[in-house]
Amino acid sequence: MSTDRLGLAWLRLAHSFPAESARIAALRSLEPDLGRLGDRLARLIDGDDEAFADLRFTLPEDPAYRPHSAGFACQLRSTQGLRGAERAMAWADKHSIRHLLTPADARYPDSLRALYDLPPMLAVTGQLDAFDLPGVSMVGSRHASRVGLATARRFAEELSGLGLSVVSGLALGIDAAAHRGALDNGGVTLALSATGPDRIYPSTHRALAHEIIERGAVITEYPLGEGIHRKRFPERNRLIAALGYGVVVIEAGRRSGTLTTAGHAAVLGKPVMPVPGNIANPCNSGSHDLIRDGASLVENTAEIAALLAPAMGLDIGRPLPAATVASSDELDTDARHTLACLDADGMGLDALCDVSTLPPGKVLAAVSRLEMAGLLERLPHGGYARCLR
Asked: What integer pLDDT is reported at residue 59 of this predicted model?
């Protein structure tokens, strides 16, 4: 990171007022130019009480956000901000894969500079080169169906094969499947965390986070020691939206935090690309609302690539990896019929007998042949489903 006076000024701002995006937006309403804003902050820290005096305050109305106030200057100069900055620099110095980026750094992502409420600090664990790839964001339900998880994983695999990084939030469900898909294809993935850089949430994703760090990065705007706070997740979502050229939404309910990511993307003028799903699954209701509201329905990665191509110069003529589908040509009539009756969500033996109209003995024999052929899998609850890969 840049350790000059401007870089240090941004770090002290980040630790004096941790994750106060409204305050950053207020400062930028006064001084949109980031270089000049950093200089004014450094002057204020150095004791120049007139650093912002020539600017007219506009937003927001709360006087507490006004950098002209003595309270703002006092807090910015406080030992809280200084010690927080020192701890962050010590954290970064301990390992070569740890980095601190501020708007004073050339490696700070341009897509985040465009945010009015940009993070004054990014703590990055992993590879800074991961920011150089064009990205696509992928988000969805923490309680995703097996179909949703398989879709996210396959889409991420195929998109990483096009040279895109996959951006998501390290959460359970769709986020984890998206990260995994990119990693399985040897691709790059960025994980935006809602905790400090010394914590992984959920803790069950520590191993996944370590894999991400090897080829991509885990990124946060929050200071060391920052734990779980509900409001941090929607704050984090604006960064997921900003770092991708578009947002793919897989299984979002009507009250899902995923919709905040979609909203941020729409405000930024980026494509919002919901994947349609089973109408009986409430996890799809928010996605379907997005489609009704004019978002671009997508069913495959070729459609995603076509929507992203104008903004990123993607070569959509490049062939996409074909999904691997086992052949059913050598199956007997009962097995082919049983396979045709199965869906990806799965069904129990009784339901399969009813739909196929075959006697239970023939269905069980067909199920065994399909399982050996890799075309069917047993579900934890005892049912059966088509293999999705």
From this structure: 46
